[in-house]
Description:
69% helix, single chain, 3% strand, mainly alpha
Amino acid sequence: MSPDAVAVLGFVALFALMLLRVPVGMAMGLVGVVGYAYLTGGSPALKLVGQTSMRTVTSYQFGVIPMFLFGLDKVTKYHMDVPLYSTVFTHSMSKAKYDAMSAAQKKVVDDHCTTEWAVKVSSPWNKFEAAGRDKMKAAAGHEVYTLTPDQVKAWKTATAPLQKQWADAVTKGGGNPDALYKEFQDSLAKNGAGF
């Protein structure tokens, strides 16, 4: 197969993985390694994966099920049982695109841009991930541990600069970050989704 055909097949595989809700970065990595293996042979690809697997595993937050799918469970042993990771799904469009829609099209968009629909779309993945945590707890050779309150506080403290960066961007855009963050926290509390 020509390199161009491999590239086209790779794009098809990438979109198929994304339709299966595999996070984009992981889908790209998998397609890249398989494509590289096809073009250069299995040995160079395995060598590349072997050199980067630990660095990759320790640098990124992976959901539990993808760790099994990509064999990362073979190079990790310890796992925090804490919801630090959540896949975020967004379907976005520009204001100009929205404004160009008919009234009927806007109604469909408006009727589905709700918290209820967000829960409906994301719940299957979250349940899938929760089942993965149970699978990891049952897997031989793995230790799943719970963070202490002090450790949770340390994780939250570590993310404070990100929250400040977000607040600065909101302020620059003319918004009120304190009011928005309070609204967000209230919504989390109301829906039992806080951490």
